[in-house]
Amino acid sequence: MPLSVIPFQIVHEDSKTAARIGRLSLPHGEVLTPVFMPVATQASVKAISNEELEELGITIILANAYHLYLRPGIHVIEEFGGLHNFMGWHRPILTDSGGYQVFSLAQLRSVDDDGVTFRSHIDGSEHRLTPEAATKIQEAIGADIIMCFDDVVPYPCEYRRAKEAMLRSTKWAKKCKQTHTRVDQALFGILHGSTYHDLRRQSIEMMLDIGFDGYAIGGLSVGEPKELTFELVELSMELLPKGFPRYLMGVGTPYDIARAVSLGVDMFDCVLPTRLGRTGVAFTSLGKLNLRNARYSIDHLPIDHQCSCFVCKRYSRAYIRHLMRSGEILGARLLTYHNLHFYASLMEMLREAVKNGTLAELVRQLKEIEGVEDS
Amino acid sequence: MPLSVIPFQIVHEDSKTAARIGRLSLPHGEVLTPVFMPVATQASVKAISNEELEELGITIILANAYHLYLRPGIHVIEEFGGLHNFMGWHRPILTDSGGYQVFSLAQLRSVDDDGVTFRSHIDGSEHRLTPEAATKIQEAIGADIIMCFDDVVPYPCEYRRAKEAMLRSTKWAKKCKQTHTRVDQALFGILHGSTYHDLRRQSIEMMLDIGFDGYAIGGLSVGEPKELTFELVELSMELLPKGFPRYLMGVGTPYDIARAVSLGVDMFDCVLPTRLGRTGVAFTSLGKLNLRNARYSIDHLPIDHQCSCFVCKRYSRAYIRHLMRSGEILGARLLTYHNLHFYASLMEMLREAVKNGTLAELVRQLKEIEGVEDS
User: Fold this and answer.
1) Residues B49 and B41 sit within 8 Å (Cβ to Cβ)
2) Which residues pair with A375 in a beta bridge?
3) Residue A211 forms contact with B (CB below 8 Å)
4) Which of B44, B79, B314 sits opposite A50 (nearest CB)?
5) Rounded distance between C-alpha atoms, residue B317 and residue B300, angstroms
6) Model pLDDT, residue A303
7) Short-list B282, B296, B280, CA closest to B254
8) How many helices (H) and strands (E) does chain B have?
9) What local confidence, expressed as pLDDT, does residue B104 receive?
């Protein structure tokens, strides 16, 4: 197995669970894990400025190669010497390869053993992505961590198709590794196999054999029952060697993240805090609030009286409700900021709990508020 | 003429023009004039937070009684003891009475000598506003400066209708003054008469006779030729006594504001910096830029290299263009912030120029860039 070009150091291991605290030393800065990466699909965490991300203590964001390839186009980003300069964000970035987007967002034309032909969701123009192209694109974008291009299947998925996609993703991952030349970028492999234990095992075995700087669990959190998700996460964690960062893609709620942390996951990304923020929903220490709800029309309280963010210091639920009902951009801004603050605080609390051996207790607390929603 | 409850002190008069620098001492703070008031129609300067307004040095904002009356409703604002607490903005506010909105935005049902019946532009519900009601509403909203409820006519307007509306606005203004009881609020009269010199003169005479804390020029900047606008502004300035603040409603471009300042206007409001910002247009020291223009697709420069705002320190034209094309909220945020910074700097430069006797030169410079637009 090749040594990682990107140092990942485990600084603490929980004695009671599989959780650990790690330090990823990336070209654009250090990232303490477990970490949550806010999603900047189109080179912007929706409604939030870089200044605010820094203020929130965000150490790494996720951008999307598929979106950036279509718009502004890789030639534009190359003109700036990479995405960091283009967007003025100088802390670490991870780019998703675009595999997921090609299968979920684009009009798919055809998949073959070498790659995918699809039509842009923006203008219908035809494009082709291959593992080689996706890797070159991500090298040009210049993120600190890039992902292998994969063949993604929906849930539920027949065994035959799941196996085919897993084997193809593995073959493509090998091509990504062979294509990848930038030593200042980590390349993560993506594990597949849908909901089938044996396929997941086989995927892990084969991917470890190729060897990557880190391993992501792909193809989960796509509609399957939660218990199945965590069964497969647990299985994966047990089979992966400890010394590499582990990334659970597209997860999730605070409770989901906490559970995954206790199983040994290091990295997360999810659109929940930003997307829900834009629709009026706030995460709080007592559960979720839907600020569009009429019950908040004259509510003087902040979103969460236990929260220390600038939104909770100054703005009432009633005012934020008014902004959301009136279609004011500021409503989306304030809720997104608060939700990202909630997620950042959550990750800090999780790291503290791992250090103090109190993770199980924190997971229980998060389970209690998981279902609580006011609407 | 009654004494103003709100002290307005002229601290400097230009020897070469009619411009002056003044200080309005309002319950929520001092406002140096000439001043530009960003528009917070629905209790939010679109896309901008209170924190940012403070950072920009904004000393007073404008909100709209018509909009707030319909949503969130006056009972909500009363629950908070006024708009300042409701929106968490503790510097001065001016509210427009809603006259303009009733005539431009609502479905008008009927105007009579006592008031206006209209349907809400939001849900079609029927409402009635009278000078008395508009004043009570603005007392409940609790702005530092409130405006008389007026009968607004479009441009062009027949003499007969212009005269009728002017006389009605004057009669209503008297009722507003009689209704108004809050001594911690200034009440401004609005001068009318469309584009007719004699009606403007008559309006000023009658309104001065009633006596207000300040005088606004209404019914201009509604499509009439610019030269006519400034002819009528000049006429009005000559007839108004010096000791009261003068407010030119809905104006305008940087050059328009500078010209009006040199004629003796103290206060301005306009949606231009915010509305244009949201559509991709930036004000700069060299004219306007439309950041959606393809020529900026790989432009490394800031919006305006002479600008010191946080946007120009960090973000390139190419990135902002990408954000606008991609429909990212951050694009609207960055451009709006920059434009408000441009307007705030403009007002500072105008005040400096009045002090230094260099206003005429500054007006000439602003005239030169007025027409410059890249698209």
Assistant:
1) no
2) none
3) no
4) B314
5) 6
6) 98
7) B282
8) 15, 16
9) 86
Which residues of B are less than 8 Å from A331 in CB distance? Answer: 44
Measured in angstroms, the CA of B76 and the nearest CA of chain A are apart by 6
Residue with tokens 């497969």: A232
Residue whose pair of structure tokens reads 């409850």 in the numeric block: B5
Nearest to A199 by CA among A230, A242, A169, A223: A169
Farthest CA pair distance, chain A: 61
Nearest-Cα residue of chain A relative to residue B83: A319
- Chain A residue at shortest CA distance from B89: A314
Of chain B, the end-to-end C-alpha distance in Å amounts to 50
CB contact under 8 A, A49 and B329: no
> Using omega within 30 degrees of 0 as the cis cutoff, is the peptide bond preceding B252 cis?
yes
Q: Does B107 touch chain A (CB under 8 A)?
A: no
| CA–CA separation, A131 and A99 (whole Å) | 9
A42–B328 CB contact, under 8 Å: yes
B330 closest CB neighbour out of A49, A71, A334: A49
DSSP three-state, residue B287:
strand
- A271 near A300, Cβ under 8 Å? no
Nearest to B258 by CA among B340, B366, B338: B366
Q: How far is A159 from chain B (nearest CA, A)?
A: 38
pLDDT tens per residue, range B245-255: 999 999 999 99
B314 to chain A: closest CA residue:
A88
Catalytic residue selected from B144, B151, B266, B269: B269
Rg (CA), chain B: 20
Q: Report how far apart, in Å, the C-alpha atoms of A176 and of each of A101, A167, A181 are.
A: 18, 14, 10
pTM of the full structure: 0.97
CA end-to-end distance (rounded Å), chain A: 51
Q: Side chain identity at B121, as an amino acid letter?
A: H
Question: Which domains are present in chain A?
Answer: 8-270 (3.20.20.105), 277-368 (no CATH)
Which of A44, A90, A68 has the alpha carbon at shortest distance from A134?
A68
User: What sign does the dihedral A346-A347-A352-A357 (CA atoms) show?
Assistant: positive
Backbone region of residue B360 per phi and psi (left: phi > 0; alpha: psi in -120 to 50; beta: other values): alpha
Q: Return the number of other C-beta atoms located less than 10 Å from residue B227's C-beta.
A: 8
CA distance to partner chain A, nearest, from residue B326 (Å): 7
User: pLDDT averaged over chain B?
Assistant: 96
Ordered per-residue pLDDT tens for chain A, 375 residues: 444 567 999 999 999 999 999 999 999 999 999 999 999 999 999 999 999 999 999 999 999 999 999 999 999 999 999 999 999 999 999 999 999 999 888 788 899 999 999 999 999 999 999 999 999 999 999 999 999 999 999 999 999 999 999 999 999 999 999 999 999 999 999 999 999 999 999 999 999 999 999 999 999 999 999 999 999 999 999 999 999 999 999 999 999 999 999 999 999 999 999 999 999 999 999 999 999 999 999 999 999 999 999 999 999 999 999 999 999 999 999 999 999 999 999 999 999 999 999 999 999 999 999 988 886
Listing DSSP states for A94-115 in one string gives: EEE-SHHHHHHTSEEEEEETTE
The full DSSP string for A20-80 is: EEEEEEETTEEEEESEEE-B-TTSS-TT--HHHHHHTT---EEEEHHHHHHTT-HHHHHHT
Which positions in chain B touch A316 (Cβ < 8 Å)? 80, 86, 88
Q: What is the pLDDT of residues B300-353, one digit of tens each?
A: 999 999 999 999 999 999 999 999 999 999 999 999 999 999 999 999 999 999
Residues of chain A positioned with their CB less than 8 A from the CB of B310? 51
pLDDT tens digits, A343-370: 999 999 999 999 999 999 999 999 999 9
Beta pairing partners, B347: none
What percent of chain B clears pLDDT 70, i.e. is strictly above it? 98
Q: Are B248 and B264 in contact (CB under 8 A)?
A: no
ipTM of the complex: 0.97
User: In this complex, do B49 and A334 lie within 8 Å of one another by their Cβ atoms?
Assistant: yes
